[in-house]
UniProtKB/TrEMBL annotation:
Listed name of the protein: ABC transporter substrate-binding protein
Keyword Lipoprotein carried by entry: yes
Domain of life: Bacteria
Signal peptide, first to last residue: 1-20
SUPFAM superfamilies: Periplasmic binding protein-like II (SSF53850)
Keywords of this entry: Cell membrane, Lipoprotein, Membrane, Palmitate, Signal
Coiled coil stretches, renumbered: none
Classification via InterPro entries: Bact_solute-bd_prot1, SBP
Keyword Phosphoprotein: no
Length: 440
């Protein structure tokens, strides 16, 4: 049986005392937020899967606000061994009441029968779903085939362009502007920054291959209904073609055929000039470095986009809260979700570096106010452009994206052309989906 504890592990975000915590509920809070379903003492367990969510964030963004609103409800975090699967957790005897996850995790939980359809709870407690950002709520609703609603958005995890100002200064290249660049313009910048200086190889940008470019168009890898590969479509061909433009920049392929440059190259080695990435993937680790006394001279710009899609960003990842179908406290769990979606609690999320799930531009003005590493940064660029709704997925998509990565590797290392790489990946994807279906 797993223990439910809140551990003081290495934190990603320093959470400063929040004036919002001592304020009265906002006039803009959900007016239909009612009292708790029960006044008896209740303990709820929360399990986090598939999304970055630190213990400090859990305490500050969920446990503390809920305790203040509902003194009878205590939320604890379920901390299973890192090797434990969701299936093992739900058969352990200690079942979570709430699940924090991304929408891409849903299929696994749905197959297990672990998620509660919250439509009846939405009606029972008059939850005003019109306050949720449509591109988030619609992404959650599109998971089910028959109208079930298996989660409520918690926050929007969006993409921005991180850039290292020191590298730009070193080579006398102007910083990315506050106006959105096209991918062609971003690659032109990258060519000026990809060079060797003093024995150090600097890389201008790594968009992470076709899968990275595909996020700009919200492309599914396989047809959500049939499971057939979609890689031969014109938009997918475009992502492979632009990936080739990226790795063909002279100097991009490094020693020992290195062609993947990620967070460590940006934060620690400081050899990657620009990195398109999720907010949750970078802001916390950058704050952790700051706590260690390591300062990186960086800032943020709008994420680049294809020329015919300017004004849009990338598909936003939905971090959401679901209720376990095995929970004995579903009403209380839904009341917790309702309060977390209030203006009052969403303001705390915004101030601590998470983009709110609700429609309230005033909260966006406070984004990152209590995250030291974001002080002085161009946080307004987080909200430059319209995020895309996460693409509709097939239950096998997470199992077959590896073939897209394999195709990209063949292009980089084996000089395979775009059409051949796509054809090979498509054949492998279709075979794998067929195999997975037979083994169900």
């Amino acid at each position: 049986m797993f223990k439910s504890v809140v551990l003081p592990i290495s934190v990603i975000l320093i959470i400063l005392p929040l004036s919002a915590c001592s304020q009265k509920p906002d006039p803009g809070s959900n007016p239909k937020d009612t009292t708790a379903a029960s006044t008896e003492p209740v303990k709820l367990l929360l399990y986090s899967n598939g999304a970055t969510f630190t213990n400090t964030e859990f305490q500050t963004l969920i446990a503390d606000p809920v305790k203040k609103k509902y003194p009878n409800i205590t939320i604890e975090r379920l901390e299973p061994p890192s090797t434990a699967t969701p299936e093992e957790i739900f058969s352990s005897g200690t079942v979570p009441d709430l699940i924090f996850s991304t929408s891409t995790s849903y299929y696994r939980f749905i197959k297990m029968g672990a998620l509660e359809d919250v439509r009846e709870l939405i009606k029972k407690y008059n939850f005003d779903a019109s306050r949720l950002k449509p591109f988030l709520y619609d992404a959650v609703k599109q998971i089910a085939d028959s109208g079930e609603i298996y989660g409520i958005p918690f926050n929007s995890n969006q993409h921005i362009l991180y850039y290292n100002k020191d590298i730009f200064d070193k080579f006398g290249v102007p910083y990315p502007p506050d106006q959105q660049l096209t991918w062609d313009q971003a690659l032109d910048l990258a060519r000026q920054l990809t060079r060797t200086e003093g024995g150090v190889n600097y890389i201008g940008i790594d968009v992470q291959g076709p899968l990275g470019f595909a996020r700009s168009l919200a492309l599914p890898v396989i047809d959500p209904k049939t499971g057939k590969s979609l890689l031969s479509s014109p938009d997918w061909v475009r992502t492979f073609t632009y990936s080739q433009k990226n790795f063909e920049i002279p100097g991009f392929i490094g020693k020992n055929n290195t062609y993947n440059y990620d967070r460590d190259q940006f934060m620690k080695d400081r050899t990657l000039a620009m990195r398109p990435a999720w907010l949750a993937n970078m802001v916390g680790p950058m704050e952790e470095l700051r706590q260690q006394g390591i300062e990186v001279n960086w800032d943020i710009a709008p994420i680049p986009q294809f020329g015919d899609h300017l004004g849009e960003t990338r598909e936003a990842q939905v971090h959401s809260l679901s209720i376990s179908s095995q929970s004995k406290h579903k009403d209380e769990a839904f009341q917790v979700i309702t309060h977390i979606l209030s203006d009052e609690t969403q303001r705390i999320l915004a101030r601590n570096g998470r983009v709110p799930a609700i429609i309230n531009p005033e909260l966006e003005k406070e984004y990152g106010a209590d995250v030291p590493v974001l002080k002085g940064k161009k946080v307004q660029n987080v909200f430059a452009g319209k995020p895309l709704k996460t693409h509709a997925t097939n239950e096998y998509e997470s199992d077959i994206t590896k073939y897209v990565s394999d195709a990209y590797r063949d292009m980089v290392l084996n000089n395979i052309d775009v059409n051949t790489a796509i054809r090979k990946a498509s054949e492998n994807i279709d075979k794998e989906v067929e195999r997975l279906r037979k083994n169900q």
